[in-house]
Amino acid sequence: MTANAPITQDVMTLPRKFSREGRINIVGMTREQLRDALVEMGTPERQAKMRVGQIWQWVYQWGVRDFAEMTNLAKGYRADLDAAFVIEIPELVSRQVSEDGTRKYLVRIAGGHEVEVVYIPEEGRGTLCVSSQVGCTLTCSFCHTGTQKLVRNLTAGEIVGQIMMARDDLGEWPKPGEPKDETRLLSNIVLMGMGEPLYNFENVRDAMKIAMDGEGISLSRRRITLSTSGVVPEIARTAREIGCLLAVSFHATTDEVRDKLVPINKRWNIETLLDALREYPKASNSERITFEYVMLNGVNDSDEDARRLVKLIEGIPAKINLIPFNEWPGAPYKRSSNNRIRAFADIIYKAGYASPIRTPRGEDIMAACGQLKSASERARKSRRQIEAESGLS
Ligand code: SAH
Ligand code: SF4
Predict the structure, then answer these.
(1) pLDDT digits over 138-158, tens only?
(2) Active-site pick, 91, 114, 116, 292
(3) Does residue 16 surpass a pLDDT of 60?
(4) Residue 139 Cα to ligand 2 middle (Å)
(5) Assuming Cys at both sites, which of 253, 265, 279, 328 could form a disulfide with 144, CB separation 3.0 to 4.6 Å?
(6) Is 120 near ligand 2, meaning CB less than 6 Å away?
(7) Is 116 a catalytic residue?
(8) Do 260 and 364 reside in the same domain of the chain?
(9) What pLDDT is recorded for position 374?
(10) DSSP code of residue 245
(11) Are 170 and 119 in contact (CB under 8 A)?
């Protein structure tokens, strides 16, 4: 992809897969759920665990969608599987490719809902930004997704299915028996798409367990980052039950400002959030927490804010990721100037923290952080409502 390549958009309307009444989708089932279902289908108890491992490898490592191709299983058994189960992932509706190579996918899930998924290629790695909900119940005033009314939790299969869909599109399924390619196009996952992952805890957990499993997608837990706006009670649970890296949408240094930007702060304020974050690295055995901080002109970007931030996070192993605000139609904020962002970053850096400024990716196709909102989802809040909730009007 050259820098000047045109933006492409190909709309694919794939035929809906026919699935016989009652067949269960195995994508997203936990090991235990699949094991139990196999036993129910008649698999002898003592074989069931091994069969789960075999099926998982076909599905998650080699991308096979047809039981007939699972050649290390007996023919009759493959037919039994086909009668009882399907292997289905969300349907790809459209794909846009940005000038910078970022890909934004629109995928359709059961019920006709749509979510967006973003693939960001980088030097030597590639990150998939995965959605956990259709829309978001929270209403952060700077976030496009927060203006979308319709919300539904994605199932574990719909979450892990986004990874499989991206690997389909990238053509990245190795063949059985071939050595594993160590440099993967899709090497990292961030739960930073649409939705608040900790308000859909079980499904996110089950999907990430498949992503981390050696017989599943097989990504290290250090290559998976879950971003939360600060659902405090679920943070300790994330450490215990998922153990991936954690990012937190911090965005402000006083409760007064954070209440307006990230309204969940009214429920769990900065102090309560920091207490939970202090425990996370120990509990999850991860190195440090990423503090995300969106740079909003004149709102949260002063030198004083930077100094307060450094003080607040004292003692927490942290990296501060500064995100230049990405605009969207009707957004009530402006991006801080480059000089302001650099000055802010400098104060944090001098206090001993890494303070990278995130380069917006895929802005031309509205794929950058906080710009996601399924285009087909017409129900949207009015500009007045957005401004009222931001406390600006
Ligand atoms: N709901 C989760 C994860 C999704 S948002 C959360 O809030 O953490 C991913 C990141 O993008 C969050 O840090 C979010 O605050 C940030 N973000 C949202 N809207 C943005 C915008 N318009 N510009 C820049 N960053 C934004
Ligand atoms: Fe939801 Fe995160 Fe957007 Fe807030 S920033 S509205 S929590 S998706």
Answers:
(1) 999 999 888 887 789 999 999
(2) 116
(3) no
(4) 6
(5) 328
(6) no
(7) yes
(8) yes
(9) 60
(10) E
(11) yes
